[in-house]
Design brief:
The chain is of the alpha+beta class. The protein is built from 1 helix and 8 strands, in the order αββββββββ. It has one helix at residues 3-31, and strands spanning 35-38, 45-51, 54-61, 87-96, 99-107, 112-121, 124-130, 137-145. It has an 8-stranded antiparallel barrel. It is globular and about 35 Å long. The termini are far apart.
């Protein structure tokens, strides 16, 4: 085999490697808002997936050092319900793969429900909760996890 022939054989290998890397980047970008996200500072993992009410957010993993009951719920009857498996968001309409809008978010730390929007930027999710007016809210940044390290079991 000549040197020129060896170079021809290496070229397809490089093209295959580049294509494999590019498809990995495309998978990350296409994942968009759906998937598993770790919320800080608690470390809980929330799954965002399609449900009957649009996109829904469900707690699927909780760290051991956090409350496991909905103790801040304004309805006293619901304060003993488990956080594991709790739907904390619903009604989001996906405007494109990277954005969703029009949903409602329940914050178990405060017991309040907010209107919300979300935007995925690579492996981060900007989740904004607000009352009535969008700019009068708070934005949290969550980090994508491909699978929870542990899953809680709904009570």
């Amino acid at each position: 085999m000549t040197v020129r022939g060896a170079k021809r054989l290496r070229l397809p290998i490089w093209l295959a490697l580049i294509a494999a890397c590019a498809s990995g980047f495309a998978t990350t970008a296409e994942a968009g808002v759906t998937g598993y996200w770790q919320e800080e500072p608690s470390g809980a993992v929330i799954q965002i997936a399609q449900c009957a009410e649009g996109l829904c957010l469900t707690i699927v993993a909780l760290p051991a050092n956090r409350p496991h009951a909905d103790v801040h719920n304004p309805d006293v009857r619901l304060r003993q319900r488990p956080l594991c498996g709790l739907r904390i968001g619903q009604g989001f309409t996906q405007t494109d793969s990277q954005h969703a809008d029009g949903g409602h978010l329940y914050d178990p730390r405060s017991g309040r429900t907010y209107s919300g929007t979300m935007a995925a930027e690579g492996n981060t999710l900007k989740l904004r909760g607000y009352f009535e007016i969008r700019f009068l809210g708070r934005t949290e940044t969550w980090t994508r996890v491909w699978q929870p390290h542990y899953k809680c079991t709904p009570g």
